[in-house]
Amino acid sequence: MTIRAIALNCTLKAQGESSTDAMIGVLERAFARVDVTLTETIRIAAHNVKPGVTSDEGEGDDWPAIRAKILAHDILILAGPIWMGQIGSVAKRVLERMDAFLSETDDQGRMPSYGKVAVMAIVGNEDGAHASSAQGFQALNDTGWTIPPVAACYWVGEAMGTVDFKDLPETPEKVQKTAAMTATNAAHLARLLKDAPIPGAD
């Protein structure tokens, strides 16, 4: 059974080296070990994702094409940095655009994301990893995604420190172990859902 993942890099940077990319790389390697291919990473800040809560906000909106790519995959990695103790604004915009799923149900009440798995990758130099994952997972659950156990792989550096995740000489062992659990659990759940889709409500 072929399982494919896609990552949304919600760094605030439109270009350049990103700690979020580094964390996505850790998960990519972990997913590869459980036969899941990360086919693409989309850096949201490099695209014109307009504000709004529909699936198409009109001329120039890059979200419809990104949305189509997301829904063509089995696993979504929502990745981003902590800012001011919470998930960054770019990730919040992605979640706001997914709000449209609530009104895009099939004839059995299933949203487009039903049967698909979502995990998170979070980096930062301040407290907020748990708050960020709590915000993200609640929104992802509201919009139809299935969340596996140990679905957040994160690293938080010293408060007010100067070392970013991308600057570390090697990935900490705890992060590697968490990434392995995240990938294993997500892959297992994605295979179960693909084999036995979530039934709709009559």
Q: What features would you describe in this structure?
A:
This protein has one domain (3-195): Flavodoxin domain (Rossmann fold). The protein is built from 5 helices and 6 strands, in the order E-H-E-H-E-E-H-E-H-E-H. It has helices spanning 19-32, 63-71, 89-98, 129-142, 173-195, and strands at residues 3-9, 36-43, 75-83, 86-87, 117-124, 152-156. Strands 1, 2, 3, 4, 5 and 6 form a 6-stranded mixed sheet that branches. The longest helix has 23 residues, at 173-195.
Summarize the structure.
The protein is an alpha/beta fold and 202 residues long. It contains five helices and six strands; from the N terminus they run E-H-E-H-E-E-H-E-H-E-H. It is globular and about 50 Å long.
Write the layout of secondary structure elements.
Layout (H helix, E strand, L loop, with lengths): L2 E7 L9 H14 L3 E8 L19 H9 L3 E9 L2 E2 L1 H10 L18 E8 L4 H14 L9 E5 L16 H23 L7
Parallel strand pairs: 1-2, 1-3, 3-5, 5-6
Antiparallel strand pairs: 3-4
Features:
202 residues, alpha/beta, Rossmann fold, six-stranded mixed sheet
